[in-house]
Amino acid sequence: xxxxxxxxxxxxxxxxxxxxxxxxxxxxxxxxxxxxxSAKKPLELMFVYSLEERVENNSVPSRFSPECPNSSHLFLHxxxxxxEDSALYLCASSQVSVAGVDTQYFGPGTxxxxx
Amino acid sequence: xxxxxxxxxxxxxxxxxxxxxxxxxxxxxxDYYLFWYxxxxxxxxxxxxxxxxxxxxxxxxxxxxxxFQKAAKSFSLKISDSQLGDAAMYFCAYRSxxxxxDMRFGAGTxxxxxx
Lengths: 115, 115
Prior knowledge:
Chain A has strands at about 5, 10-15, 20-25, 30-35, 45-50, 55, 65-70, 75-80, 85-95, 95, 100, 105, 110-115. Chain A has about 120 residues and is mostly beta strands. Chain B has strands at about 5, 10-15, 20, 25, 30-40, 45-50, 60, 65-70, 75-80, 90-95, 105, 110-115.
């Protein structure tokens, strides 16, 4: 197991619900990421927080809202989702330095089903 | 934009044999990083091997090695002496050295290991 944890591991929600996904990294990294993994499609980078600064991704619908209160925690707030948002949501972290960016380490993911 | 292509959706190999997974990428950049990640069924994605584009020598990690052909934009993964535990989805990934927040993944190759 890597030092990145995600909760919950499974989530079923209706289209009108509001829920949040949580990610925590224990590696001392200063960058965190949200990815969406759908079947038979490449991983899609959704959001990046680097040195606690958010990097916008304009292709992500506003029904997904990230929050990074500190360098160890990352949240993804969900509201009024669509069935096509059902996927595995992966969190990752890495260390950013003047030398570049180190390898990303992934959490186990949250399997989200939107009914 | 950089794209990563894995042309083999599925591969199989006999235990103890060698298998090669293909990956090509498209970029106009001269400096970048390439990765192979492994995602076992219902388990976390973990890094298998990484290659810096400025290094001519192919990376190796025990039974895993790459064939990095920069001019051809090819980055294949060779698994020697395959083991049952190697069965997983394998993802090839590209990260620019100029945009640390942008990491692109291929669609993955599902590797089956036959006993």
